[in-house]
Amino acid sequence: MLYPSIDKMLGIVGSKYSLVVAASRRARQLREGEKSELKQPRSHKQVGIALEEIYGDYIKLKPQIGEIVENTKD
């Protein structure tokens, strides 16, 4: 069984795409030396720790507003 489960994560994040992007960005920060606030993470890999941080509300996600692309064809 995976922890945290994808169903519980989608309740927090909203979409699988947003979850993947947020977890990968945070995993990269951890790999580059940032410290995690988790006392005892279940995972020893950066992606797992990032997912645990998102699930435990240690990481707050900011909604990104997509760029509006105007149609230039007349």
From TrEMBL:
The encoding gene: rpoZ
Highest taxon of the lineage? Bacteria
For this protein, the Enzyme Commission number is 2.7.7.6
Please list the reactions this protein catalyses.
RNA(n) + a ribonucleoside 5'-triphosphate = RNA(n+1) + diphosphate
Q: Which Gene3D superfamilies match?
A: 3.90.940.10
Question: Is Transferase there in the keyword field?
Answer: yes
Q: Which GO terms describe its cellular component?
A: DNA-directed RNA polymerase complex
Q: What is this protein called?
A: DNA-directed RNA polymerase subunit omega
Function text: Promotes RNA polymerase assembly. Latches the N- and C-terminal regions of the beta' subunit thereby facilitating its interaction with the beta and alpha subunits.
Q: How does it assemble?
A: The RNAP catalytic core consists of 2 alpha, 1 beta, 1 beta' and 1 omega subunit. When a sigma factor is associated with the core the holoenzyme is formed, which can initiate transcription.
Q: Which family does it belong to?
A: Belongs to the RNA polymerase subunit omega family.
Q: Name one GO molecular function term.
A: DNA-directed RNA polymerase activity
Give the record's keywords alphabetically.
DNA-directed RNA polymerase, Nucleotidyltransferase, Transcription, Transferase
